[in-house]
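Handout, tutorial session.
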Amino acid sequence: MTEDDSHSDDGEPADTASEQRRRAGDEETSNTRSDTPSDRTPPDQTSEGRSADPAADGSTETGDAADESELSTARRSGAPNPSRALSDVALDDDGDDSRGLFDDLLSGEPIFENKEVLRPSYTPHELPHRTDQINQMATILVSALRGETPSNILIYGKTGTGKTASAKFVSQELERTSQKYDVPCEVEYINCEVTDTQYRVLAQLANKFIEKNHAVIDDRLRSLETLAGRAREDENALADTGFDAVGDVDARISELERDREEMESVPMTGWPTDRVYSTFFDAVDYNERVVVIMLDEIDKLVEKSGDDTLYNLSRMNSELDNSRISIMGISNDLKFTDFLDPRVKSSLGEEEIVFPPYDANQLRDILQHRADVAFKSHVLSEHVIPLCAAFAAQEHGDARRALDLLRTAGELAERSQADGVAETHVRQAQDKIELDRVVEVVRTLPTQSKIVLFSIILLEKNGVHNINTGEVFNIYKRLCEELDADILTQRRVTDLISELDMLGIVNAVVVSKGRYGRTKEISLSVPIDETEAVLLSDSRLGDIENAQPFVQARFDN
């Protein structure tokens, strides 16, 4: 038997010398050629089929040296690092294919150019159909630019008739003109629906003027310190300054620093009211100036804390030495002055300006004026602005409502990624705003009013129509017992129903029953499910649902 024909006992051919030489040549060649990704050994196996784990075959040092040799060979041949290539591929996949939460929302074309123009806080550069009222305010306030005290002004009008916007517009023009002619004239705005007590009003005004006084003192100190530095180097630096020596400048600096330290800001609570008033008086009279105090929603201040604030403010001019104060009050209630002291009423209402409601055509002009700035070109269909104006005109010509309607319609169109704002978006916005208004009104009702309203809801849900006051009162008493709440008299419950009717939540009509007298027939004017959900969200009424089976049983019987 020859060497080439030899076989092993198990039938497999034995390695011949020629085969061994060929294998050695192949291994040497493989060490010098560049590998392709498909030819690479998997990371968990060596080229001999051994495990890559050094502990598996006890060849730690030998395996590390082999790995280093393979990596250096790969670097010389230009082959990429396999592990780095795989991670790069994974990262590339993430970066190219993943879509974030907001990517789809941002993919559509925006509809708005400047949405802020449609918000109530925006003061436009032009107010259509309010030229007469603006000119009337300007003719009254122009005396402030002459250093004189303007007459006090009361501005009346329903919500959304342009009262606040017009007053802010005139105030901005007044301050701009005062800076132009270097006349000390300032306007301070306070919303009395938020700042609704005498303490808060005086504290807010005092802190504003203290802040301004600090700024003025800081400017003077910087100027005097610069002057003192120059005067120490050159005695002629004090010429025409009113100071004879550097010591006089230093004395003035010390005086201003002392004034600044004495101006203590008023905390929002904790001081006696007379101390707050005294601090405000000293702060406003520190410099020569004419101040116009604009009190928006002034009727809320009178309703909450009486007319003491208005009395003190209107009488200050007789005591001030350097400054002068004028009051501009803005109110939705034309009759709020009926509750004022006659002396306050006479001094406060020196000038009165009434803002009438807008009609549909005027609202259309206002909306068009704002829409030109607020929206991209050609995104509003031709029926959008007339429809918004018509809806708002139905509610006593409320421009604020019209602007909210137009803005909400645009937002709904943008959320649906529509190409423009259509009539359907306006109608959807109308329903949304109405529901939001109802939710807010119901949420802020007193607890007793909520119980009365829930009584009406239970009656309607159980099929009772033309509900009368007696039926509401019977359910109301049961609910109060369930909630351990005080039970009001039937007359007081009737008053609460009238208040709900005034808010537009229920519709209460007085009907005659002939010899049985008169009663109120009550029905809901708001969506029943949404209203019930708002009531049940009140923690104080959390157990009110437990009374419903009782009410159901009552009607079944």
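The second record follows below. Compare its token runs with those of the first.
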Amino acid sequence: MNVNYPDILQEIEFYNIEGRTESAAFLMWYLEKYFRLDQQLAIDSVCDNNGDKGVDGIYLNEGLGTIDIFQTKIAQSDKKTIGDTTLKEFIGTLDQFATKEKLENLIKTAGKAQVASLVKRLDLPEKLDAYKIRGVFVTNVDLSADGQALLNEIDNVEFFGKTILEEQYISDKKEINLLAEAKFDVSENETTKYFADSDTVTYIAPIKAKELVQLDGINDQSIFDYNVRGALGNTKINKGIVRSIKDPSLHKQFPLFHNGITIVAEDVEKDDESLTIKKFYVVNGCQSLTSLYRNQSHLTDDLKVLTKVIKVPINSSLSSKITEYSNSQNGVKPRDFKSYNQIQIRSQNEIADKFGEEYYYEIKRGDKTPDGLKVISNEFMGVFLMSFDLEEPWNTHRKYQVFEDAYNKLFARPEVTAYRIIFIQVLDEVLTEKINDIENQLIARYALTKYALMYITKGILMNDTVGNSLIQSPNDFVKNSESRENLRQALRVIIDDIIIDLNAEVGDLDEDFDYKSSLRNDDWVKKLNRNIVTNYLKQIKRNRIPSFQEEWEKAVANNG
């Protein structure tokens, strides 16, 4: 990542449109790429125009309990720095949010400026008492010495400059196989050529299956990285494809009843005899191409597949549209369409970079998992985040919400980093290990029980100094295998105590207790949570059981 001017303009191109300042576009880009907001929320959080009282953006950060006030500077020279004068001015800007009276005065004096609308939309005057004001200064240059000295003296401003932005950038794109190249014989049939615009051309031709199965990346599934799904195995549709492949009498008819495949490629060359593609992916037709590859011995020259090759930049928005719309058939689920969403790709890349020795983050059905790694399904992670972060375990039976209505609430938040995902995964591992200690096995084996336990565990951690630190910033608790094992040990003791209380609560209920309906009832689960957490805290106060802090410190001491 290079944030120097003018290179940064290429990065912020999507946001940098007429009627919007480069500074505003830069902040929107930062909010999407670093703060992990979706594009619409990033745009909605920015108010950088005339009369905005020095405020460039506002975000209500419920995860950290802060009202984040942004100011952005985009410098055209990398020799410039941000000094203490600029920071002092920003501190003055933050003072406008110090009290309800000052904030109401800002709204009054800002008039029709966007900052007034944004403050009112977020209902900030009524939320000041419950949130801490945090300043976030974002720029493409670094601090001067006096700027750094001032920053060291204050605790309500965070600075993100050139060095931090370039070091902490996590790509939200798949790596393109630059060496991938293939050449198809199209001499026997006519090739249709269609121009969508001056830069986007499509070629449609029947291609021999024998040639298609020679494409690099089918065996390891990397050629389907931009497909919404991986190979799904022996589904009803795939079995039908295989039957037609194994019947030579159907080979000439194959294009009549098969939808074909779609390939996007950055380079395409066509002459009278051949069609050559470079830097390409299959975005539709994974099941078919995989079936052909696995049944190569049955292929003949008569079996051809109607193939659509589109010349388009792989990482462009148009390529994403092609992937989405060409997969809008039956059998494609909401999760499949999020498999190439930037938020999911960024998380997958970050987990591979920081935790790739132990974990793999699966973002689509049929993903080929590296051997020996623990798989984290983004579908289950969404359910876990709903239980722990959103504190709504009673809604987890509506799993479809994870990639529909609840998607942004679950994943498009600054706190949902690789570290948080791994923390929640470790919690799930411990709960899975301990769940059968619940005496009533009907309840133990009911999925919503684990999600309720996640919710209760959070209630206990929130009342512990170290536990609250874990919730707010799990980085140091999961940064390496040793710290993760320490966390497991501490959580085991806490969850043991929770299950003891849960057994007592459930034991007092009638034999015909409807646990299925109860675990879907928010009032019942909240009452259960209150009872268990209250009893747990009493036991801590009476020194009858160790706190999470004590268990964490004990684990760290024992394991060095």
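Points raised in discussion: Residues 229-237 have pLDDT under 50 and may be disordered.
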